[in-house]
Design goal:
- This protein has helices at residues 9-14, 51-63, 98-104, 124-131, 143-156, 194-200; strands spanning 2-5, 21-22, 42-46, 68-73, 114-118, 135-140, 161-166, 180-186, 201-210.
- It is α/β, with parallel strands linked by helices and 226 residues long.
- The strands form two sheets. A five-stranded parallel beta sheet has the order 7-6-5-8-9.
Amino acid sequence: SCLVDIRASDEYAQGHLKGSLSFPSKELIYRSGELPPRTKCVTLIFNGDDSGSLDTANDFFTRARWTIRDTIQINSLDPTTFEQGSQPPKQRFWEPSPFVMGMLMGPMKGHTGVAYDFGCGSGRDMAFLAGLGWCVTGLDNRAKLLYQCLEMHNRYGGTGCVSTVQAHLTTTSPFRPRSADLVLMVRFLHRPLLASMLDMVAVGGYFLCSHFVDGVQHSSVGTPKS
């Protein structure tokens, strides 16, 4: 189970359980991309003097279909066993797309350069690439998600850089041909854009596309229509 500390960040810094990560209850809705996969259970750590935060977190995780295994009232524990300090940047619950991770840690290991992430969402793949030293530009039409991308990069760091472009990708192709070492499209698909995306890849570069997870074709979502 992943230990999610929903107290304020200053309370977390003053003392927290080993292995727990800080997700103040008021920030959960803006940091959902940093949470563990829904296949993993969560245990919520809370301050017994602030039951409202626990109610907020319970509601969020239940609505978002995570399984809450347990809750821990930290006031009832021995504080001499706590760790102190802010959350280290390298500790995380989130993971990039397994496809992206497999390519970047396999055939593409050691490669860096300029990358474009089409339909970047909340930025997990971007943060992973930046952590490996890539300079990544993410494109999405939702300003809220692009803000999350930048915040995620600020929290988890890395030697690379991150920038964002708000664009409706069904009508916009903002980059020059042969300008990227990597063009990435994960969990997003607009087939008319594919030709121009391929033109953006520099000689010797990579184009990675993974547009839906196995099994979605049997769900209410169905397969991409365009």
